[in-house]
Specification:
Elements (H helix, E strand, L loop, with lengths): L17 E4 L3 H13 L5 E5 L4 H8 L4 E5 L12 E4 L4 H13 L3 E4 L12 E5 L2 E5 L6 H14 L4 H14 L4 H12 L7
Parallel strand pairs: 1-2, 1-4, 2-3, 4-5
Antiparallel strand pairs: 6-7
């Protein structure tokens, strides 16, 4: 049986420089996804033309810049992460190859074999964030799981997280003792009713 070997991480996109190449529907989708989770993400979107909806979205986020030009390899300088979603597979492949030469992580939309990472389903409730991956096999399943978790995770979970954080600050003892106490108090989270 195949298993999902992806390593989930939570990136601070306001500290990184992201490049999206493509200003069409897929570029809008990718940018919307990033900004939904990280509204202050540092992103530059490069394309020869932009959907009006993409321009409207960018106008609501000071940390996002539009550049109306053809992609040039020098645009990869000082980047951490790249998403290519043009209508031209040759351009997308070139962006991927150039990104790999520079050790940049890259995602070529709808081309799993040219992706170092996927943009999975995300559930956010205050400080709690859950990422969902289907290993690039079924975005629809990730969407349904996201909807499920949005329903079952209580709206007040953020209050619990904040309270536990305050409690954690008051704990005395070494690391192992603190972990034991936190495990004890959170034990009820895994019990089924």
């Amino acid at each position: 049986m195949e298993s999902n070997e992806l390593y989930p991480i939570f990136l601070k996109l306001h500290n990184l420089n992201v490049l999206i190449v493509g200003g069409g529907n897929v570029g809008l989708e990718k940018l919307s996804f990033l900004l939904k989770s990280s509204p202050n993400a540092n992103v530059e979107v490069v394309a020869t033309q932009f959907l009006p909806e993409l321009v409207d979205l960018v106008n609501k986020h000071d940390s996002v810049k539009l550049t109306m030009k053809e992609f040039k390899k020098k645009m990869l300088k000082k980047r951490h992460m790249v998403i290519a979603c043009t209508d031209d597979l040759k351009v997308n492949k070139r962006i991927y190859d150039l990104s790999r030469e520079r050790y940049l992580i890259c995602n070529i939309a709808d081309t799993p074999e040219l992706c170092d990472y996927y943009l999975g389903g995300i559930v956010t409730k205050g400080n709690v964030k859950i990422a969902i991956s289907t290993n690039g096999k079924s975005p629809t399943t990730a969407k349904r799981l996201r909807e499920f978790f949005e329903e079952v995770i209580p709206e007040d979970i953020n209050k619990m997280v904040e309270n536990l954080n305050e409690y954690r600050k008051t704990l005395k003892g070494d690391f192992e003792e603190k972990v034991r106490k936190m495990n004890e108090i959170t034990e009820t989270l895994k019990k089924q009713e």
